[in-house]
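Holo model, L87. Inputs:
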Amino acid sequence: MRGSRPRGAGRRRPPGGCGGDTLRTPASLAGCYSAPRRAPLWTCLLLCAALRTLLASPSNEVNLLDSRTVMGDLGWIAFPKNGWEEIGEVDENYAPIHTYQVCKVMEQNQNNWLLTSWISNEGASRIFIELKFTLRDCNSLPGGLGTCKETFNMYYFESDDENGRNIKENQYIKIDTIAADESFTELDLGDRVMKLNTEVRDVGPLSKKGFYLAFQDVGACIALVSVRVYYKKCPSVIRHLAVFPDTITGADSSQLLEVSGSCVNHSVTDEPPKMHCSAEGEWLVPIGKCMCKEGYEEKNGTCQAPSPVTNVKKGKIAKNSISLSWQEPDRPNGIILEYEIKYFEKDQETSYTIIKSKETTITAEGLKPASVYVFQIRARTAAGYGVFSRRFEFETIPVFAASSDQSQIPIIAVSVTVGVILLAVVIGFLLSGRRCGYSKAKQDPEEEKMHFHNGHIKLPGVRTYIDPHTYEDPNQAVHEFAKEIEASCITIERVIGAGEFGEVCSGRLKLPGKRELPVAIKTLKVGYTEKQRRDFLGEASIMGQFDHPNIIHLEGVVTKSKPVMIVTEYMENGSLDTFLKKNDGQFTVIQLVGMLRGIAAGMKYLSDMGYVHRDLAARNILINSNLVCKVSDFGLSRVLEDDPEAAYTTRGGKIPIRWTAPEAIAFRKFTSASDVWSYGIVMWEVVSYGERPYWEMTNQDVIKAVEEGYRLPSPMDCPVALYQLMLDCWQKDRNSRPKFDEIVNMLDKLIRNPSSLKTLVNASSRVSNLLAEHGPLGSGAYRSVGEWLEAIKMGRYTEIFMENGYSSMDAVAQVTLE
Ligand code: L87
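Output:
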């Protein structure tokens, strides 16, 4: 490591007026003095301290220049010649240490320039410059106070090649004045403290191939210990089975670059995966994912084919033949199309035979008697071949040993039985085909698809949600869509919540041949009624039909033993409302928009499937450690019974009033458009970090206020674009509300162009703790624009409104926030 190399010392005296100081040597730094040529003590101390504080650059920083690692001459130029000077130090390996210093604090009118050599920007358009330096405090310099300065200036000049160095001073562009007060390492020198400062500045956008840096001293006492120039990149990663390449960050310090990932080998996607590279070199807001192709399994960010065959048994062995049988691999990862059996005589591997078989048995014939044969088997799925099994060795019998022909009898018997079964299957298939045909004639095409689902035939590309109620037997529905898990595969660790049916726990799931997974588990408490069990498992029947990165993933159900359980992936950060309350004010707007984007994408998927959620609220969103939000809580009739927020309406329905669209409250018109209304409330909850919608107003007051056209006011520090989207979701006319795909597109646009999020709803126009009169803008309540403006203490603007054509409340109602 660079920082651990003990540095030697140079031979010069400290610059200018510093020479008279004598400093004591801390014992811990004694190692500095084993060097071949000695530097002044203070320089050595600084360098040792510098080295101790220098850490390797983070992986998202790419150095364009690091003065500490340049072995030869740096090639920097000082003018005038008696200004900046390089301390000709070397370390114990005689490698130069490039420290520049100047200390003309006693002389008037200093203008000392130090020019670097040309630095290529390697295609980056924003670069960072990290300086490590010491600056003497003028008070510590005897007699220097009059002219002494405590700052220096840094400049740059862009040029495509190395021919631009001899330009005039005034052609350099100033980056900043650097002072020594922000970040420093204190060096305890016994009787005094020396400060090694670190300052970082950034420059951009750059448009040429490279640049020069220049340091101007106007009379300070400086030692420039190191200069590191770098750019930032988002380092290549694999997320959700997509490879994202090394990406140089954008030119603008708030820019997010949208980067497309490419699916790893043997994986595919229907939503191209994307991520955003921030100016800080961090990957943000992952969107979409790739999935292993049928036949492949995800493992450490890659997809692999079927696992090897393990269990190979010998059958009948004769003098010229060996029969084998085996079991399907533990993880076939698809339908096994055939097996390939490779065999050869032991120690004769160069000459082998391959047999292909669709069965899990073969007989290798034409073998030599009394010889050992080596067998290896591999499976093939649509994805290709898996790896060969380990070697299995079997020996043929000698010529004179008998082999009974009786053994053929069971084989014939088995063949006949298999034949009869096959015939029965074919007849059954034909009969079921006739039933399908009959149904077809009666049903419309949409139902036909559903019918095919019910008939276990999956049509690719058709993603229509099936209401588990359509099943006569709910147990059939749950097993149609959810895997049965053996209770012994689950370890329950702790209780993390309570639901209407029982506790919610965290734990681990270890399925045979799979890696152990952290999971969440909903349990059905003992003493349940048959209806409760049906409703409880109904949620699993619904969830099991969904496969989307923003929908909580069902691992399976336990129904064959008690307690009955629903097992899902584990979301480390729990419910979104609690998580936001706990982390009030801690996220960037982009992070919040990323959360909202995820929820909208999940809801788009649900609405495309024809599923209406009815209880979309931050408490029903789960969030994982990557801040990915997933829609949760699916149910049939029980949905709302499970939700403590749900209240009985006058018509006897149980509805979470604050989250529900007026038409759903009034006449139970639940649609994806009413889910959009709830989505708007979730947006409000997210931006206000888990605040309760309509605070402590009663449900009755909320219904009344919303009916009268009042809407929640903008949360604090809310970008106008987000509040406008909320208001759009809360349009009274449900057909005027945006659709979820439009919401996703809108949020994507905002993420791509973060400056669009900079305009916040003006604090004065935010009606704190009062409901904003949006929609009709209170038009019902006020007869004229003047009356309305007076009421909101804006009467002085009446004339301006009139002059600009807003003379009626109807005209005013058309004004959007934009
Ligand atoms: O921290 C958590 N991580 N909590 C609190 C959870 C989780 C989780 O993964 N709470 C649940 N998780 N639930 C139940 C309430 C959801 C709003 C679920 C996962 C869940 C389960 C276990 C089954 C079906 C639906 C959701």
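The pocket of L87 is lined by residues 496-497, 504, 520-522, 539, 552, 566, 568, 570-571, 574-575, 620, 622, 632-633 (CB under 6 Å). The longest strand covers residues 221-234.
Archived with the compound record.
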